[in-house]
């Protein structure tokens, strides 16, 4: 009887624990801050709109609702706008051989996103994500470099890819006197296959990246600083360890990821923890205003270290969403399609907006707030002084050109001649590549 009672006690304990886990998952708040908005601002008071959109890598052919909404927004004020695509720009494994059907579909995907900027004459950059690196497979470096060349060749002087050549960055993009963007290839830290190092990249070591970030943040002056990468530092979504309740019906999967097994792309993973801890060290002295990422297919806003604000904006095509939860530091969270916008006013104030998009391509401001940041020493100049075209940076490729089928809708220029040498580093305050716009 004693052995039988002990067995039933153990079974009851396991069942009780499973029920508690399911109950906690079901009762956790799936959204927070929804509908909290502040008053709009007049367009003539805006110095710059920074749009953050990620994981847009499988838009519906023809009219994709999220891209339709974005095109409408950019058309209203392209000279005041800058767009950052936060990685996973082509699902599922980046841009493969473009002489094959899969590569042709990849070209369709990236060109559909680029067309939004070209048609509205809006500047922007793409940063890579883990799926652009072939989801971590051995051909990742080749695929990401192939995609980079398409963007830089067909970008029409408006659109660029940063960081280049599969290097980690940071790349400094100054948008006039208003904004300093630091672009990082976060997959470089997590990629288990071949990736470039010090022989090709400057910097090409983890410590070099940290030091360059520190210098770039310290030298920003009155410019607001925004770090853009694919992987978030914290998340209330699946990559942060928060799953919907049906997932727990097969408990090995979430528990394995929570303990760091099969978790290279999760916050709990060993490599991922090393990446986020390194960034935290880089932000200690000069803290960036915003760290923005995708990776999770939802919309999240945090007021939480190691930056002043953390943004997750990875819902860049309609219906591609995953569960999320309200966790420590949350200001807004919702499983929905859309993007986020940071508006820099000429008087120095900064306004954040979360735009949710419906199936018809209509965008609604679902959350907005003033960011708590100190004022600049002087008002920002008007848009005419901060919005020149994105300056193209011409560099010799580090390997023979990869075959790319031209986009018949876009005038293109030929690729630079091949070279076996690594591209020379462009000088900058951060000892990294730099693209500067405006005075």
Protein topology:
Layout: H1 2-27, E1 46-53, H2 65-76, E2 81-85, H3 101-120, E3 123-126, H4 140-154, E4 159-161, E5 171-175, E6 179-183, H5 187-190, H6 206-218, E7 224-228, H7 252-258, H8 270-282, E8 290-293, E9 299-302, E10 309-313, E11 330-334, E12 338-345, E13 350-357, E14 363-370, H9 383-386, E15 434-437
Parallel strand pairs: 1-2, 2-3, 3-4, 5-15, 6-7, 7-8, 8-10
Antiparallel strand pairs: 1-12, 5-6, 9-10, 9-11, 12-13, 13-14
Helix pairs in contact: 2-3, 3-4, 6-8
Write a brief caption for the model:
By secondary structure, the chain is an alpha/beta fold. Helices cover 26% and strands 18% of the residues. It has a single domain (43-437), classed as Metallo-dependent phosphatases (Purple Acid Phosphatase, chain A, domain 2, 4-Layer Sandwich), CATH 3.60.21.10.
